[in-house]
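User: Can you predict the 3D structure for this chain?
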Amino acid sequence: MRTADFDFTLPPELIAQTPAAARDQSRLLVLERATGQTVHRSFSGLLEYLQPGDALVLNDSRVIPARLRGRNTRSDGKFELLLLEENGVNDWWAMLRPGKRASIGVKIQLLDKVGEASTIVATVLEINPEGHRRLQFTGTGNILGNLDELGEIPLPPYITRASPRPEDKERYQTVFARADGSVAAPTAGLHFTPEFLEKIRARGVTVCFVSLHVGPGTFAPVKAADLSQHVMHEERYHVSAETAQAVNDAKRVVAVGTTTMRVLESVAQKNGGQIVPGQGRTRIFIHPPHEFKIVDILLTNFHLPCSTLLMLVSAFAAPGEMHGREMVLRAYAEAIAQRYRFFSYGDAMLITG
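Assistant: Here is the predicted structure, written as structure tokens:
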């Protein structure tokens, strides 16, 4: 298939710049894949599509305040840093701007949120083929412990506000986030409140968690014209023994978000359709046609044109077949006509049946 097959036109005003007034007050578009029909609900209507014996699986990765500011200790030139992945204590891969000034050996003194110098210095150790820099931090026992005072939540590029607002620290984070490591939120999980999760459990549904640390590759455009030429970004995951058993024992598996889907399908493909506990890394690229091993229902948000996330959703709308793209793009056209809110802070979509 071609990347251009997944293009659509979205009015800019439908890109949600702020979250809904309350997490569970967003809208829900339900796509019934057996019939191709759509139903318009509020998010609370999700309860009606869950049954006793289901397993609802969420991604509990926590977004870290990964965007930092700094200055070159010799030239005083300014840098913006985005932490990507921890190799070890005070050893991180990061994106730096301007990258051309971040050569090996450059030392960057981190600044606090008002621009004052801190005691922490990042030294560029290595540059990988993608242009990311490996940084060694000194002046701190563990840079993770300083991020709340120095860093900002890295909002997606399509949220065009000049800077994060205080409420973003809470709202661009799921209420069940606990495993530090993401630079982008698993956004389908943003709709849940503790009270709503209790209602789900009260229906006899098992609520369980995986961890997939979302990297900036989730926003990266597909540059290849043909999908077979696209190289998928890699992300780290962890599955507990408790979650593995709950998923394997479930009547139906409901994945909350494309990140959760990627974990479950990656593990199931390696293990004959079963989920086993453990950790690893995945580059799974799900696009039509794709046979799904474990997930029965998908809750997700609305995704960018020509994105790998839209391709995954299209594959799930018609497993093993090619017409899911048409189903999803028709549903997206209806969502646009009905003025749904798109992307991270936007409304939700349920693919079932």
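Residues 196 and 329 are 30 Å apart (CA to CA). The chain has two domains: 3-63+168-352, 67-150.
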